[in-house]
Amino acid sequence: MLSLGCTRPFMTGLQKTLRCLTQGSNSFQKIFAGRVLACPQSTDSKTGNEHWHTGKRWHFTVAGLLTGTGGVLIWGLHKNQVERAKTKDTISTEQVDNHEMPSGNRQSGSQTYTRAEVIQHKTLADRVWVTYLNDVYDITDFIELHPGGERIMLAAGGALEPFWAMYAVHKQEHVLDILKGYKIGELCSEDKREANLNASDPYIKEPQRHPAFRVNSSKPFNAEPPADILAANYLTPNDLFFKRNHLPVPDINPLTYRLQIEGEGIKSLSLSLEEIHSKFPKHTVIATLQCAGNRRSEMNKIKQVKGLDWGIAAIGNASWSGAKLCDVLTSVGVKEEEWEHVHFEGLDKDLSGTPYAASIPIHKAMDKHGDVLLAYEMNGEDLPKDHGFPVRVIVPGIVGARNVKWVGRILVSKEESTSHWQQNDYKGFSPSVDWDTVDFRTAPAIQDLPVQSAITEPHNGSNISATCEEITVKGYAWSGGGREIIRVDVSLDGGKSWQVASLTGQQQKADRAWAWKLWTLTAPLPIGQEQLEIVCKAVDSSYNVQPDTVAPIWNLRGVLSNAWHRIYISVQK
Prior knowledge:
Elements (H helix, E strand, L loop, with lengths): L7 H15 L2 H7 L18 E5 L2 E7 L11 E2 L6 H4 L6 H5 L14 E2 L1 H5 L9 E4 L2 E4 L22 H6 L6 H8 L2 E5 L1 H10 L15 E4 L4 E3 L2 H6 L10 E2 L13 E5 L6 E4 H7 L2 E9 L5 H5 L14 E10 H7 L9 E9 L5 E7 H5 L6 E6 L2 E2 L9 E3 L12 E7 L6 H4 L28 E6 L5 E3 L4 E9 L6 E7 L7 E2 L1 E3 L12 E8 L6 E10 L24 E8 L1
Parallel strand pairs: 4-7, 11-20, 22-29
Antiparallel strand pairs: 1-2, 2-3, 5-6, 6-7, 8-9, 9-10, 11-12, 13-14, 14-17, 15-16, 15-20, 17-18, 17-19, 21-23, 23-27, 24-25, 24-28, 26-27, 28-29
């Protein structure tokens, strides 16, 4: 129990924090859904931070797929112990008399501090102070309770605004309520004015986006186009290609850009953009990119998952041009048999300087038929800023997460990338695995994606007149690993009977079918039906076929969602 010598404000603040920690995972999830204070987070959920507990210990996963509207940005398996918080329950009367109280209890609105004074409080020994707007907070005793662990120390002695600008999900009422409990005073008048002028937004230089996008998060920007646009164009227009960003879009000067190629025992190489253009033959590949979370919204209908609520349009097809990665690696003496993996690091970084990164197996990188590109053009134009200008990696047939944008460093290695996005995200699990039992070490990183298809027209919930003699259904189909789509089956009665759709798309080589197929079915409108349940399923060249329902493939991250796609339309008399 707390000493009776504690003041009432202190008791209230500390008891509120302890109560949040002891009420169980549901209450804790609600309180910390925003990954409070300065914690960087991941690019994928609208529900909050990923967490779990075992025994008496709370474990947290801070997301590296961060979204400004409540999504998850997963940084890795930060396992914070909060047991020590419980050992601080006894506060002596002497401490209170000497004002040696933990943060959250010196709520003196009249106490003022200079910015210079705040900067002096950057360590646990000196107590950690931060500012937000014009107020000063001592967050020392919150640090161990923070879902992001010691990443909160990035803001020590400084302002929270740059972090909350990057991770806008923090700006929620329950997060602000927690912060208020740690207020110790205000900035002096002169520093208040300076603080207001210096509040920075790392997203201020973001490119313009098409207004037709359905935005899943604004900071970082993640959005998908209207679904019917997909089937209308074999090559998805650049400005309507889905956007998947984990961090702020970097502002890169193409004249000073350098790509570093490194690895133990090889000749390091630094290439300018002009040298990538001029020193290596230009190759063009038509390839489909799909986010691992495409169609996640259907899994959310079964049970809530962690991640951006993508519909069916987190996928697109484009013509990519650039230098083959195998040519570049061969030029520095890389031999496939000596290495296992190739790492890619982007120039998009969080506030700690950590870049987005991923890796692929060396055999994919060095295969001249694997068509891995250091791409600098998309659909015949310079890469758009949102899609990796000036250079990105295109890994045909592989999940979008490995197609690293704004690539600045390539490393050959005998080990897989240790990046959060390689080790602690973009992996699939059994439906039985939850956040209390998940162990990301037990699952391999997603590379090839499974066979996929979806209906883009008509829209779910739309109407058709009973006087129509026919109905036309359209969509896309694709499979990972270079497997070609050989058939799409469509049902107008929920899967009781099937018809084969017509496929369109360019001819592709065996095992190098990197691009999708678009499909169309025009069939007689069933007579006497008030509602149609329209279903599609694709079959690839290995005769892989989509599963019929979502529940058996549900997983806590909502990835690899490829069940039969279903829509319902009404027949109006």
